[in-house]
Design a protein that fits this description.
This protein has six helices and no strands. It has about 250 residues and is mainly alpha-helical. It is rod-shaped, with a radius of gyration of 37 Å.
């Protein structure tokens, strides 16, 4: 399109002087209409007229380009903010699923000078389920925001998020069952529980983190990469000679 425009301008630049010469040099075909001014006057008029017209066209073209640049700058700024907010949201949600930390926090003290009570176990259960409740609330809120988003990458992340939440819930419930069966006043039971929990951490929680949390992390990075590609394309348009700033 730009090449055709230049061809048209070159042709006009070659033809216009010829047309002006014909117009100025020809006699008036309508004797009833009086032509005011000499040939030099008309030549000056046409020169000023065409110069003003060309100047106006150049101004309009510059305004059009500036408008396009401003629109692209706004789109770039919006995309940058979107990526920043999205990175924070994804980081918060992926970081919530530290399965190993959940297990470590449930380990019971076996210090000789400390007597574990049922109240201590209840406090531990409350903490585990408070953490689970917070994670569930975050997951539900995320689902409300992105449930109907048609983008494939969003649906992939939503599915991974739910899988991770479900695995986390199952693990908390498994620890809860074991704690409810525990008689904290019996140190032998505490030792057995800790041995079971350490094995549970090594065999289940670490595996779940490697499977579910890692999957969320990889999809989150894929999502951010797609948004970054959009930003790069907008920047490329802004600095493209055909569209934006040279």
């Amino acid at each position: 399109m730009k090449g055709k425009l230049w061809i048209i301008l070159i042709i006009l630049a070659l033809i216009i002087p010829v047309i002006l010469n014909v117009i100025i040099g020809s006699t008036n075909p309508l004797d009833s209409i009086r032509v005011v001014g000499a040939e030099d006057d008309w030549l000056g008029f046409y020169g000023a007229y065409i110069g003003a017209l060309v100047g106006a066209l150049i101004t309009l073209y510059a305004m059009f380009r500036e408008s396009k640049n401003n629109a692209l700058n706004i789109m770039i700024s919006n995309q940058e903010n979107l990526i920043k907010d999205l990175r924070e949201q994804l980081s918060t949600r992926v970081g919530a699923f530290m399965f190993g930390n959940m297990g470590d926090s449930a380990l019971l003290t076996t210090k000789p000078d400390y007597t574990l009570t049922s109240s201590d176990v209840i406090k531990l259960l409350i903490k585990l389920h408070d953490d689970l409740s917070h994670i569930t609330s975050q997951c539900n809120a995320w689902g409300v925001m992105y449930k109907n988003d048609p983008r494939e990458i969003v649906q992939k992340f939503n599915a991974a998020y739910i899988d991770c939440r479900n695995a986390y819930t199952e693990d908390v419930n498994e620890i809860t069952i074991r704690l409810n069966e525990l008689c904290p006043e019996n140190r032998e039971n505490i030792t057995k529980f800790n041995i079971w929990l350490k094995n549970f951490i090594a065999n289940e929680l670490v595996a779940h983190q490697q499977t579910y949390t890692k999957q969320m992390f990889e999809i989150a990075n894929e999502w951010l990469k797609k948004e970054q590609e959009k930003l790069d394309n907008l920047r490329a348009q802004l600095y493209s000679p055909k569209i934006g700033i040279k």
